[in-house]
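Forwarding these from the shared drive since the link keeps breaking.
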Amino acid sequence: MRRYYVLNTSSGPLVTSIDGLALWPLGIPAPLVWVIVAFITNFIPNIGFVLGVIRPAILALVIGSPPTLFVVIGVCRVVNVVLQVLVQPRFVSDTVDIILTPIFLPVAFWSFIIEPLGAILAMPLILLGRALLLENEPELRWSRLLSGDQV
């Protein structure tokens, strides 16, 4: 779990810095504040991006125009998709020694079961389940493969 949070902490400044650099030329006030808010919300999987971009987007609409709003949302969305959806899961799978697919499946499963809280707790829940059920049973090689463990 510690490695997972270290990875999120180390990738967060890159994502949020790019977002802040995009807000600055658009004239959005206090881009550093929005960078800090985006960094904090970066720890919430799936919905953290939305929580981090709502305030600067509304501010872009108030001080700018609807096109400025769409530019803020578009730039932040592209950065989020590229870095947090396409790149970061690969590093997460290498860091916690699981295959990439089980990172997405628990998010979908737990989101269905306990809604937004499930999306936030999906990764800790799969790591806890794997540790409790499989770490002490080396003869359960088939079940370790199903859990996404890189045997």
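-- next protein --
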Amino acid sequence: MNIRNNRFFKTTYILGSALSIASAMLIVVYLYVKISDIYPENDRSDIYILENCNQRDSIASGTYGSRAHIGLAISDRLLEAIRPIATEVSIERIGWDTFEVEPDDGSIPFGVVGRMVDDAYFRIFHFELIAGRLYDSVDVESGRPVAVISDLLARRLYGSVEAAIGRELSMNYETYTVCGVVREPSFLMQQSFGQVFVPNTAYGYSPSDLDWLKGEAVGNLKLRVRVSDAEDGRKMTEAVGEVLRAYSAQRVMNEDWLLGSTLTLDVLPITSQSLGMPADFDWGEVFRRYGFMILILLIVPALNLSGMIAGNMETRLPEMGVRKSFGARRCRLFRSVLAENFRLTAIGGIIGLAVAALFVWAWRDWMFFLDDSIMANAPDSVSVIITSDMLFAPVVFIIAFLITFLLNFLAAMIPVWMSLRNPIVESLSESK
């Protein structure tokens, strides 16, 4: 059989396959980036985020609530309960969304994404150290004004990565000494992305020095916790719940004017947080939420292609009859026609994958951030980097192959099989 005989059929079949696979692959890439292990978040399933502390107090005159990050009133209790279970716990102090860097050459200051984190942060996330060193616990405990910056920022400020080590960095009217340079991750890695990292005790005041903050349950701290497995994650979550319940009970007993207090805290693995899912990550929920979309993107074009194949097979019934008369068995003809359609689908699949990759790269700023405020609040120095391990991971290719095969099988099997069931005489009569 020569697939070049019907150019219209071939072109339409390839374009239909390409459109379907490109659409499905956009969802696959989106999910892959959201939940897979990608630098520097290489162990997402074992990393939990503790944030969004919500306190509601009931008093005689009504109910009052406050919501922010974790405060000092419970942070020490949480750390005491978590550390025996976790392998690493990192404390981040939340301050400004954007840090303002003042270049040495006197050029206009510009904003960067900065994080005030301890040394454990670099053990939870696997940053690639390019030059210098990461600051350690001694730097954090002493509040030493040192900074780890990204390679892109180092080149912009100092010309090269090596030239950045030991240089002074003026940021938010404070001066830091650059001690290390790491490879900048993609902005898509929201829990780890940063262009400047400084000790959480180095900038301005230290939260532990402010007595008036020590009685507050809500504050400006965020915890990241690494556990060894899902069972330890469950134990850690239960330990956090016990701390919150004990704090609420204490508030009722110790303050006569307080009728009741409820304290809640979001405890989410990165995978659940990225997709806005409940704390217990469930693959079934992922498939229910996105599988239907992928199925529709496959089924609708498959039905259209199936109709095209049925029409094409009608025109080829005489050819089938001649081949049957010379001894060709139905199963052999079936495999031959399916192989032909699979070649067309494979061509469409390659085109579809290329279109999907181009679309992801061109529209990355909004594709992964349906909430436009995330990109709107990002400084101008930030760009969404699409790395090769996001687009060309083995799992993505495997899924692409399965999608291609499924599309071909659904579109071609039924009409081809029905056409080949015609008797030889009936097939030959179609040529008259």
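Confidence is low (pLDDT under 50) at residues 424-428. The chain is about 50% helix and 20% strand.

- D.
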